[in-house]
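[09:14] KT: can someone run the structure on this one? pasting the chain below
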Amino acid sequence: MGRAAAWDLGRQPGVEAVRIIDHDRDGLAEAEHEVSRLLSAVTGSDHPARVEAETFDLNDSDRLVRLLHGFDVALSAADYRFNEALTRAAIEAKVHLCDLGGNIQVVDRQLALDELAQRRGVTVIPDCGLAPGMAGLLAARAVERLDQASVVRMRVGGLPAHPKPPLGYKLVFSARGLVNEYLEPTEALRDGEIVRLASLTELEFLEFPPPFGRLEAFNTSGGASTLPRTLRAKVRDLDYKTIRYPGHCAIFSGLHALGLLSEERVNGVNPRELTEALLVRALSDDDTDVVLMRVSAEGTREGEPARIVYELVDQHEPETGHSAMARCTSYAAAAVAYMLGVGAIERRGVLPGELCVPLEEFLGAVRARGLDVIERWETP
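[09:31] RB: done, structure tokens below
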């Protein structure tokens, strides 16, 4: 995700330097070479952006301010557990920050630093990837397009292009992040009230154009981010579900019921760590991936019932080597980071994206990056 974001930022007008940070020296050198090569191929050798690399362990929180000092914007593609410390460091260093997020408890701790960020003239926007991120911003845009909104649905999934039974899945981001989505509860709106729902529940089926056909979707954590709170006054019902090929939810519900997603040790073994290691071994292959997204809002427009839908089907890009998940996650976050850098986002503080990102401009930015988000109107 970080490599794709670095490449995207490096090709934007006015960007002078992009520095990539990682604790893995070999991986960092590979990333620096890859981003430099892609930038040269796309923009020509006279592109002004420098690609730099620095080895750093984010566990060294005492030195984070020095790490960020001198830059205009930082984008965290690291594990969400680092984002609170990165937020504090960004505020002290007076550097704008956005991150890929994924855990609402961490986001709450970031939001608690809002007043401090305002005083320092800094903007921090958590949860700026795909879901949470782009899906939520499009949901807010959909509500904005209606005269009155009542129901918002967000359905998003990263899937293998050629599914293999029985899981019909491949890892498109970290195994720990995947398991976290299946363990933590999700927040939703039901009849205007915020409720917490168990993940791996409320299974439903939906259709996408061929070759995908009938798919399933179910509750998972994190994807709705702060929307149930920020849209509560405008929307009666709102929820987020993850899309998978049929059968996936039942399998992981079984693993959960057996305790294989738990961190409570059994005979000296951490079941979650073992399961994640097995997922990495079994679900890492050379198949390409796709991202499916459908975000809809239902209400009234000019006195008539109306539904607006934003839909995206994205695939692996051979020219850059970026997976569909990397494209949709990283380009969305990079779009927000770039908007911060050029002053298109004016509010200061630690803020949900739907309260500070110009939504129409964001939609134009992701489309300009090759993410073909289709907008259509329907009659409910």
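[09:33] KT: thanks! The radius of gyration is 20 Å.
[09:34] RB: yep, looked fine to me
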